[in-house]
């Protein structure tokens, strides 16, 4: 590696807020909430019935025909987002050395819809009706593998499974791979957790909102917080060695990956505090920055009162009371699991590009005791040079990523 | 039983492996290798398992890996169907 921090040179978005980065950004600045009743299957009898779905997406015509029956909806979305990101970066993989390009994505649900279909065939008709592609479609690395095959990227590949923290970890792993000599990594992630089985697995964590009113279901940091709404989709990012990106004549640099840290919470019942604060501090140290250098924090925004409280305490402890703007545009899409922080990274890079912090929507009554400066109702116009993205994954994962202006 | 013909096979190919925008399976594909039509070994496995399921002709895995073209699949399936 050249020694300089890696750069993001292209992004692709397939999210409830839109297809493509500019559609996503326009909807996000408008504050468009894309949470609605689940349409992918009839969820009316389930205790959870709302989701942030990617309404406009179709695989036919956008995903290579051969790959449609071989892969899950989650992989379809990632393949399309990868095409967008490569095009945005001006990269034709055929022009670059195949062993210097890697793929590191994040996944949380794997191919649950595909897997459920095949399991239903198994129990209703028998083993002969389970398709051969089940063997490759369901598992977490399927998306990484299909991107690698499709684009001839034969360098270091992998998948990170850390629920909502996964996409930040995928960028961290991309950075390690670049340090080891790769020139370009396809990173980020998507998730597609909406089949009856997929939803049921999520409901078991006890953190989803059971409300049926999209306006009142996901209100992080609000006195009326009552859980979160899940969403699907995400974002794919092209991360490159800064020097090699310059050499190939990359036209766009969205930002620099300046720092990262991951921590793990102590076991339930422990006297020790949650480890999010340490992730924030370590990420700042990794970036060589002081708290005052950060212009905005994209919150994890769990929507569960005790988790919101813990997050606001961690932010206030490091940055000071109400000392840094905090936002959660995921209030528009729901929590996209592995796709969520990837989308937050894209949004943060656009905030840097356009000097504007998108708002947290729907929150009308922030808990007065949370000492954070939550950006609500309207976007805030202000110079953004440095952004921090936070993510917590169910089971104790914490991650923080620092992005800087190019 | 009616012979398993090339059109039947085309339908199974389409269901099992989807459409490849670059390959026309409507042409004369009897002697075109599955590899050239973008079918990897897993796609051929899926193909023969659907034939087994829908046409009642079992194709053992070790045979499936030797079937390189649509013509060979038709020969095998119709020969086995005759035996059955």
TrEMBL record, chain A:
<dbReference type="InterPro" id="IPR014030">
    <property type="entry name" value="Ketoacyl_synth_N"/>
</dbReference>
<dbReference type="Pfam" id="PF00109">
    <property type="entry name" value="ketoacyl-synt"/>
</dbReference>
<keyword id="KW-0808">Transferase</keyword>
<feature type="domain" description="Ketosynthase family 3 (KS3)">
    <location>
        <begin position="3"/>
        <end position="405"/>
    </location>
</feature>
<dbReference type="GO" id="GO:0016746">
    <property type="term" value="F:acyltransferase activity"/>
</dbReference>
<dbReference type="Pfam" id="PF02801">
    <property type="entry name" value="Ketoacyl-synt_C"/>
</dbReference>
<dbReference type="InterPro" id="IPR014031">
    <property type="entry name" value="Ketoacyl_synth_C"/>
</dbReference>
<keyword id="KW-0012">Acyltransferase</keyword>
<dbReference type="InterPro" id="IPR016039">
    <property type="entry name" value="Thiolase-like"/>
</dbReference>
<dbReference type="InterPro" id="IPR020841">
    <property type="entry name" value="PKS_Beta-ketoAc_synthase_dom"/>
</dbReference>
<dbReference type="InterPro" id="IPR000794">
    <property type="entry name" value="Beta-ketoacyl_synthase"/>
</dbReference>
<comment type="similarity">
    <text>Belongs to the thiolase-like superfamily. Beta-ketoacyl-ACP synthases family.</text>
</comment>
<protein>
    <submittedName>
        <fullName>Act minimal PKS chain-length factor (CLF/KS beta)</fullName>
        <ecNumber>2.3.1.-</ecNumber>
    </submittedName>
</protein>
TrEMBL record, chain B:
<dbReference type="InterPro" id="IPR036736">
    <property type="entry name" value="ACP-like_sf"/>
</dbReference>
<dbReference type="Pfam" id="PF00550">
    <property type="entry name" value="PP-binding"/>
</dbReference>
<dbReference type="InterPro" id="IPR020806">
    <property type="entry name" value="PKS_PP-bd"/>
</dbReference>
<dbReference type="InterPro" id="IPR006162">
    <property type="entry name" value="Ppantetheine_attach_site"/>
</dbReference>
<protein>
    <submittedName>
        <fullName>Acyl carrier protein</fullName>
    </submittedName>
</protein>
<keyword id="KW-0596">Phosphopantetheine</keyword>
<feature type="domain" description="Carrier">
    <location>
        <begin position="3"/>
        <end position="81"/>
    </location>
</feature>
<dbReference type="InterPro" id="IPR009081">
    <property type="entry name" value="PP-bd_ACP"/>
</dbReference>
<keyword id="KW-0597">Phosphoprotein</keyword>
